Amino acid sequence: MKRSQFLKSVGAALALPAALPFATSAQNRKGAGFSSSRSNCVLIPSETAGPFPLDLTENEFFFRQEIHEDREGVRLRQRVRIVGADNCEPMPNVRVNIWHCDRDGDYSGYAQMGSEGLTYCRGYQMTDANGECEFVTIFPGWYPGRVTHVHFQVHVSSQYSVVSQWTWPHEDAVNAVSAHLDLYPAGPDPLSPAQDGVFANGYELQLADLAWDEEAQEYVSHFEATVEGAGTSGVGYQELQNARVFELGQNFPNPVATFTQIPLTLHEAADVSYSLFSPLGACVAHVVVDPLPAGRHELVVDFEAMNLPPASYLYRFQIQTARGRFTDVKRMTVAK
């Protein structure tokens, strides 16, 4: 299985079910993280994608967890959780794109910045059963007229996405840079969120927390966004086409100890194969299943037999019938 085939399917099949206990608003301060209480369940304000979005969908390189590449700056572990407004439940298996400037306020991919063809500080992940995903990057710098911020896009289905931005409380952002002036020659951000015109309509729902992890020598940040949806599924053209042929369920149990079962319902006989991918984008296993008849099937995945370590994995199914080829992708977690 080619990695590009998998990633194109991620761009099309972007949302489906599962749920575990989840966390509260990302406005918990000082790195408290996601707790077990309910979300505030208020829709995130939509914002401009900005002048430097780039379309990550067709570029297979951007499916990755570490996005900073060779950019210098203090390490940032950014955790994101997505919640559906219709029922205030976490949204698993949705794709989250993020992009931000480097420490000097420059974005990759643009000739006017001398970065055409570069890809730093951009990437996407898919959320787990708690609606969460994680990126490893650097704390961004700032540029005139804008407070320190990160752009993000949540793909709820193949036909619906939300674009917005997050920032940090001004004091936290200033302290993060002030403590590492050797890495940030421009110094602390002179603007506060209240002075940034993009956040003129309010930014309370667009604040991430930030705390220093001394042991890991990195900042850890949590951000939660509530978007339109039920927290269980997203339906667009691609999802409707898939539903005519098959239904891919969430694996159980999830998280996984050593083995799990993946429910697959076929509405007609099909050739079936699946691949497992790590969040770093590597294909770690490819399995060709014997041709299956119409009906419900439960496919067993034995991680111990595959000698795969505890981690989050995406499973991508490819279904071949007389109608054509269909794909779907979900995420599972193998516990430590």
Task: Describe the overall structure.
With 336 residues, this protein is mainly β. It has helices at 3-12, 170-178, 237-243, 303-306; strands spanning 75-84, 89-90, 95-99, 122-126, 132-138, 150-157, 160-166, 211-213, 218-227, 246-248, 259-266, 270-277, 283-292, 295-302, 311-321, 324-334. The two termini are 28 Å apart.
Key words describing this protein structure:
336 residues, mainly beta, Protocatechuate 3,4-Dioxygenase, subunit A, Immunoglobulin-like, five-stranded mixed beta sheet, four-stranded antiparallel beta sheet
Can you summarize this structure?
It is built from four helices and 16 strands. It is mainly β and 336 residues long.
Architecture blueprint of SSEs:
Elements: H1 3-12, E1 75-84, E2 89-90, E3 95-99, E4 122-126, E5 132-138, E6 150-157, E7 160-166, H2 170-178, E8 211-213, E9 218-227, H3 237-243, E10 246-248, E11 259-266, E12 270-277, E13 283-292, E14 295-302, H4 303-306, E15 311-321, E16 324-334
Tell me the span between the first and last alpha carbons. 28 Å
**Quaternary structure annotation:** single chain
Total strands: the figure is: 16
Overall geometric form: elongated
Query: What about the largest sheet?
Result: 5 strands, mixed
CATH homology superfamily of the largest domain: Aromatic compound dioxygenase
pLDDT averaged residue by residue: 85
The CATH class of the largest domain is: Mainly Beta
Rg result:
20 Å
Please identify the structural class as seen in this structure. Answer: mainly beta
H and E string: HEEEEEEEHEEHEEEEEHEE
Q: Please tell me the total number of domains.
A: 2
CATH topology of the largest domain: Protocatechuate 3,4-Dioxygenase, subunit A
Low-confidence spans: 1-9, 11-31
- Helix segment tally: 4
Helix content: under 10%
Beta-strand fraction estimate: 25-35%
CATH architecture of the largest domain: Sandwich
